[in-house]
Amino acid sequence: MKKIGSLIKGVVVIAVIGVVLVAGYNFYINDQQPTIISTMDIQGTISDIGELATAEYGYTIAQTADKPNKKVVGFEIPFTNSQVMYSYEGYIKAGIAFNEIEVTVNEANKTIFVDLPDAKILSSEVDFESLIVYDEKYNPFNAFTFSDMNLSLTVLKETAEEAALSNGLLERATINAQSIIQTTVLSFYDSEEYRVEFY
After folding, report:
1. What's this model's pTM, rounded to 2 decimal places?
2. Contact (Cβ atoms closer than 8 angstroms) between residue 152 and residue 128
3. Which of 48, 62, 109, 140 has the most neighbouring CB atoms within 10 Å?
4. Nearest Cα to 163, choosing from 66, 60, 51, 84?
5. Residue 199 belongs to what H/E stretch?
6. Beta bridge partners of 198
7. Where does residue 15 rank: exposed (0-12), middle (13-18), buried (19+ CB within 10 A)?
8. Is 98 exposed, middle or buried (0-12, 13-18, 19+ CB in 10 A)?
9. Do 139 and 69 contact (CB within 8 A), yes or no?
10. What is the pLDDT of residues 64-91, one digit of tens each?
């Protein structure tokens, strides 16, 4: 009988401990407060710009960020690596510096010469709301930091810009700029008399 009584007491004690642990866990989860972000200061200036954006490259890019196993005294600690596979959407705008355009009119041969600056990338933006995480292998001992993610975004932008350039973004920007400027210039001159030449 003593064994049965001890067994019942043991079961009751384990059940009580289980109830306490579950209640404590639920209290902990429910007691978690959302992160509050407070803006302490914001500084900004408005500047005049003279840029004409004439082409845009939209993209979706997927990347994998890896953090290898931690090392202690030259030895790797197994199962401490982290990895995340994700994608972002973004866009790159290209165009010309509008204030560098020079127009010369030769009335003798009815020619309008336009000195057009080289096209360049004007902005490169990532849409942070487009983030999709495909796979995540997270280790709390080797977590990703803000520095890691900023470095990842820098690499992402550089890769996207290289792809945009190799796909002819600047050439398209130049062609579109010429078309826009020619239309604008010939709105002041008779298009049947004058011709526009770019150099």
Report:
1. 0.69
2. no
3. 62
4. 60
5. none
6. 114
7. exposed
8. middle
9. no
10. 877 777 777 777 777 667 777 888 899 9
